[in-house]
């Protein structure tokens, strides 16, 4: 709240961030009891090549927050335009996110999108608080590249690679 006291316009801040195109991922895990959990994230990046680390940011208010903090492993699925509706479902609270989707399970039982642009399987290395989010740092133990092109999130909508921006 200190930033608001210093005059930061929250709407202008969100609008400024929306001007930065970002990739779209669906991040998945499963609980110790085997229940699948997931969320959509555009805050995803490579962190280190040696050791191989990635980061993804999760809202602390997300329904799946406790499952990811307790998880030993998670999967980052880089989505394609075909996954746009699925990505929107995974960005919504209270949805049965896995009811309609083409997920398969990897050998550890974690949900993966077999037709994703890429699938990156990680062990949770560290969870670092960051404001209203937590930064999940994952040590990559497997990466698979698919044939589809990734989709971008820009100004509140999906942008396909090669598409003109208006």
TrEMBL record:
GO BP: pyrimidine nucleobase catabolic process
Signal peptide segment: none
Transmembrane recorded as keyword: no
UniProt key word Oxidoreductase: yes
Listed SMART domains: Flavin_Reduct (SM00903)
Protein known as: Flavin reductase domain-containing protein
Domain spans labelled Flavin reductase like: 17-160
SUPFAM superfamilies linked to this entry: FMN-binding split barrel (SSF50475)
UniProt cross-references to Pfam families, sorted A to Z: Flavin_Reduct
Entry's Gene Ontology molecular function annotations: FMN binding; riboflavin reductase (NADPH) activity
InterPro entries, sorted: Flavin_Rdtase-like_dom, NADH-dep_flavin_reductase, Split_barrel_FMN-bd
Keywords: Oxidoreductase
């Amino acid at each position: 709240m200190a930033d608001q006291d210093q005059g930061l316009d929250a709407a202008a801040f969100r609008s400024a961030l929306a001007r930065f195109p970002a990739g779209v991922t669906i991040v998945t895990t499963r609980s110790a009891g085997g229940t699948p959990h997931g969320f959509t994230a555009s805050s995803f990046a490579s962190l280190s090549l040696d050791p191989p680390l990635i980061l993804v940011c999760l809202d602390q208010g997300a329904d799946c927050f406790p499952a990811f903090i307790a998880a030993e492993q998670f999967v980052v699925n880089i989505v394609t335009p075909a996954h746009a509706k699925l990505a929107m479902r995974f960005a919504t609270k209270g949805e049965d996110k896995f009811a309609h989707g083409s997920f398969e399970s990897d050998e550890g039982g974690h949900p993966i999108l077999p037709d994703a642009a890429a699938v990156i399987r990680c062990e949770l290395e560290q969870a670092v608080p960051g404001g209203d989010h937590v930064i999940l740092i994952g040590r990559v133990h497997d990466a698979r590249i698919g044939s589809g092109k990734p989709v971008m999130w820009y100004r509140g909508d999906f942008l396909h690679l090669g598409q003109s921006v208006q």
